[in-house]
């Protein structure tokens, strides 16, 4: 990990059909804020033990510098699909793209300060 860029992780579970879309959205958000999308760390969570150890609140989970970009809320720890609340109030299997960009911008801004 380079000190001048945030650590961006996408944690996923094989049984979740939404992680590919989340990866595409995350790549787009990274490009929009001037980060290299090839720097995304993909981490498969394959067992309940892995889920417990990592605090995995379902797939997909996106972390920037170790922080979940969205509060896990009522999402349980374990091998499950995650549900996000979009800014317009709807539910979604992937985070709001604006939340992705904001989390990335905040991490980049923290490094510039």
Walkthrough of the structure:
The protein has 113 residues and is of the alpha+beta class. The chain has one domain: Glutaredoxin, CATH 3.40.30. The protein contains 3 helices and 6 strands. The protein has helices at residues 19-32, 48-54, 97-112, and strands at 8-12, 41-44, 61-64, 67-68, 84-85, 91-92. Helix 1 (19-32) packs across helix 3.
Element layout with pairings:
Layout: E1 8-12, H1 19-32, E2 41-44, H2 48-54, E3 61-64, E4 67-68, E5 84-85, E6 91-92, H3 97-112
Parallel strand pairs: 1-2
Antiparallel strand pairs: 1-3, 3-4, 5-6
Keywords:
four-stranded mixed beta sheet, globular, alpha+beta, Glutaredoxin, 3 helices
Secondary structure category: alpha+beta
**How far is the first residue's CA from the last residue's CA?**
19 Å
| Overall CATH architecture | 3-Layer(aba) Sandwich
Mean pLDDT: 92
What pattern of helices and strands is seen along the backbone?
Answer: EHEHEEEEH
The percentage of residues in β strands lies in 15-25%
The count of strands amounts to: 6
- CATH topology tier name: Glutaredoxin
Broad shape: globular
Main-sheet strand order equals 2-1-3-4
Helical stretch tally: 3
Please outline what is shown here.
This protein has three helices and six strands; from the N terminus they run E-H-E-H-E-E-E-E-H. The relative contact order is 0.24.
């Amino acid at each position: 990990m380079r000190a001048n860029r945030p650590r961006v992780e996408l944690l996923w579970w094989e049984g979740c059909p939404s992680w590919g879309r989340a990866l595409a959205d995350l790549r787009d958000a990274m490009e929009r804020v001037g980060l290299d999308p090839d720097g995304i760390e993909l981490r498969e969570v394959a067992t309940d033990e892995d889920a417990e150890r990592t605090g995995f609140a379902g797939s997909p989970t996106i972390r920037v510098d170790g922080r979940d970009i969205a509060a896990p809320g009522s999402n349980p720890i374990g091998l499950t699909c995650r549900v996000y609340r979009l800014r317009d109030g709807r539910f979604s299997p992937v985070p709001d793209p604006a939340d992705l960009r904001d989390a990335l911008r905040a991490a980049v801004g923290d490094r510039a300060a």
